Amino acid sequence: MSRKLVALSLAILVIALAAACTSVPEPAPVPPTKTPKPTFTPTADWTPTSVVIPTATPLPASPTPEATPTELPTETPIPPARLTANQNVNVRSGPGTAYPSIGRLTVGQSFDITGRNDAGDWLKFDFNGRDGWVTSTLVNTSGDMEGVEIAMAPALPTAPPRPTARPVQPTAVPPPTAVPPPPAPRYKYSTARVDSCRPQAGGTWFNGYVRQGGAPVDGEFCVFSWAADGPVVASIQVGPHAGYPGWDHGYFSHILNEAPGVSRKGDWYVWIRDANGTRISEIAVFRSDGPVPEGTGCNDATIIFEG
Predict the structure, then answer these.
(1) Rounded to the nearest 5°, which phi and psi values hold at 278?
(2) Are residues 123 and 223 in the same domain?
(3) pLDDT tens track for 136-191
(4) Are residues 292 and 216 in the same domain?
(5) Rounded CA gap, 188 and 274, in Å?
(6) Distance separating alpha carbons of residues 96 and 151, to the nearest angstrom
(7) Do 137 and 226 fall into the same domain?
(8) Are 112 and 204 in the same domain?
(9) Cα(191)–Cα(187) distance, integer angstroms
(10) What is the distance between the alpha carbons of residues 213 and 219, in angstroms, rounded to a whole number?
């Protein structure tokens, strides 16, 4: 108990004793009331308040402009390679003058080029269903020449063996008599002439036509010899036939070399036989100049038989 309370108790006791000694009773003192200490009420901990930050509304996206397509330049296609004869020119069966002639081109004739040789100086094309070749120096070219492929050349023709010529017996000349009326033609083809002769360095070449009454005739045989009615060196069928289906009607062509690519110098005798081997034409005589430089001499003859 505290000292204050003890002192207060003693004072109260003294007062009580004194009152007891008096006749008038005094009211009892009221003990002082102790003021209670204030009660501490704790404050709740601070709770942070979430601050909601508004979400920005995205602006509408601007439309992406469409790319304008760029027009590429259109390439102009290159036309296919083509040749055009700038003069009359022989068509060969291969790329060179050692190959036989299979026909001729006239000025202005034009064909698509299907190949060339490795050197590029001979051009291949479709000639009446056959592979024809012409030298590039005698034609004009146009179109895609770089796209022309190298074509394989055919094998060179083999020269036939040279037969031994037999001597020609002289024909007795009868004494002159009165002029009789013209006899009937002895042969179906009474005309046999050398129509033209051209330079040819690759051998001795022959080509020509057989006609009856102006119309071409097929199926006859053109023969070649070194003597009139002498041994036949070679023969060729006239007109389209096996191996030469693209020939013109009545046309023939042949090459006769003394050696591969070498012309024989001297006279040639050419006539027409039927299928039985009988001569049915007059004889055409042609003199070859033999080996000469390209562009010179006379080794390529055109012969015409007519009846």
Answers:
(1) -90, 135
(2) no
(3) 999 999 999 999 999 998 988 776 667 666 777 777 777 878 777 777 889 999 99
(4) yes
(5) 10
(6) 13
(7) no
(8) no
(9) 9
(10) 16
DSSP code string of 94-123: SSSTTSPEEEEEPTT-EEEEEEE-TTSSEE
Q: Is residue 120 one of the residues assigned to a domain? A: yes
Tens-place pLDDT, residues 202-223 = 788 999 999 999 999 999 999 9
Q: Residue 303 belongs to what H/E stretch? A: strand 300-306
CATH number of the domain enclosing 123: 2.30.30.40
Res. 238 pLDDT band, cuts 50 70 90: very high
- How much of the chain, in percent, has pLDDT values that exceed 70? 74
Predicted TM-score (pTM) of the model is: 0.43
Residue 294 has a pLDDT of 79
- Where is the domain boundary, 147, 172, 200? 147
- How many structural domains comprise the chain? 2
Same domain, 300 and 198: yes
Q: Find where tokens 């001499």 sit.
A: 297
Residue 65 lies in a domain: no
Specify if 172 maps to a domain: no
Distance of CA 239 to the CA centre of its chain: 34
**Residue 27 falls inside a structural domain:** no
> What kind and span of H or E run contains 135?
strand 130-135
DSSP state of 266: E
**Over residues 18-44, mean pLDDT:** 53
Residue-level pLDDT at 21: 44
What is the extent of the structural domain holding 94?
82-147
Asked whether the beta carbons of 164 and 225 are under 8 A apart, the reply is: no
pLDDT in tens, 24-35: 455 555 555 555
